[in-house]
């Protein structure tokens, strides 16, 4: 089982022309930063789909939600918003160009994005044979992450992205985030205020529950 996410940029045609022309480079840089320092079993670059779409594969799948949330946060901190649908499932074959890859995870992720309601920005699909309780848990996790992240300011998004460096596996302090703040360093107290307003403690607990859900599905399959 791996995680495949398919996404697109929200209201991309309304972006300033200079930002829109740089969108492919912005997406690639943001994804490279999101996976930097993360121990992945499969190293496949982000695939761009059309003018404002993207797709990625993350293995192991328990790292997927923190990676994707950091990706989203980095983009939001730069004035770009994305929605996404992630599917936990198997793949038939994986090519370096994900557009040429196939399998249930790819098909279900793309289909979930197409069917996503207009008021939703995140969906999480578990394997079709998983227990109903896993489906309910995945829906609840996606709804909560969507709710917590939907109203972030760019500063709040940058604070969350900083705490998620290494997909949460690194020991990152608020002082570290303050020191690396763009365009210039700020105080740890300011970072803390941004994190509290972004509901970081609840988000951190939700990411742990996502990891436990993935482990449960994998153990049930085994």
Describe it.
- With 222 residues, the chain is α+β, with helices and mostly antiparallel strands.
- It has one domain (2-221): Alpha-Beta Plaits.
- 50% of the residues lie in helices and 13% in strands.
- It contains nine helices and five strands; from the N terminus they run E-H-H-E-E-H-E-H-E-H-H-H-H-H.
- The chain has helices spanning 17-21, 23-35, 64-77, 104-115, 132-150, 154-163, 174-179, 188-197, 200-221, and strands spanning 2-9, 47-49, 53-58, 82-89, 122-125.
- It has a five-stranded mixed β-sheet with strand order 2-3-1-4-5, with helices on both faces.
- Helix 4 links the parallel strand 4 and strand 5 (122-125).
- The chain is globular and about 50 Å long.
- The N and C termini lie close together (11 Å).
Describe the structure in brief.
It is built from 9 helices and 5 strands; from the N terminus they run βααββαβαβααααα. The protein has 222 residues and is an alpha+beta fold.
């Amino acid at each position: 089982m791996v995680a495949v996410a398919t996404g697109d940029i929200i209201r991309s045609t309304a972006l300033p022309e200079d930002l829109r022309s740089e969108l492919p480079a912005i997406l690639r840089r943001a994804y490279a930063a999101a996976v930097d320092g993360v121990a992945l079993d499969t190293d496949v670059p982000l695939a761009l789909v059309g003018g404002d779409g993207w797709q990625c594969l993350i293995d192991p799948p328990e790292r997927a939600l923190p990676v994707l949330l950091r990706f989203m946060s980095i983009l939001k901190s730069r004035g770009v918003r994305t929605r996404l649908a992630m599917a936990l499932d198997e793949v038939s074959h994986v090519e370096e160009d994900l557009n040429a890859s196939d399998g249930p995870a790819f098909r279900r992720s793309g289909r979930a994005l197409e069917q996503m309601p207009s008021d939703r920005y995140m969906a999480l699909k578990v394997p079709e044979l998983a227990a109903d309780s896993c489906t309910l848990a995945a829906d609840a996790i996606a709804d909560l992450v969507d709710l917590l992240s939907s109203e972030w300011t760019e500063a709040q998004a940058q604070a969350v992205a900083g705490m998620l460096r290494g997909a949460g596996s690194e020991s990152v302090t608020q002082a570290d985030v303050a020191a690396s703040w763009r365009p210039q360093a700020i105080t740890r107290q300011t970072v803390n205020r941004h994190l509290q307003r972004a509901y970081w403690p609840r988000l951190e607990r939700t990411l742990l529950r996502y990891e436990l859900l993935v482990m449960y599905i994998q153990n049930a399959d085994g």
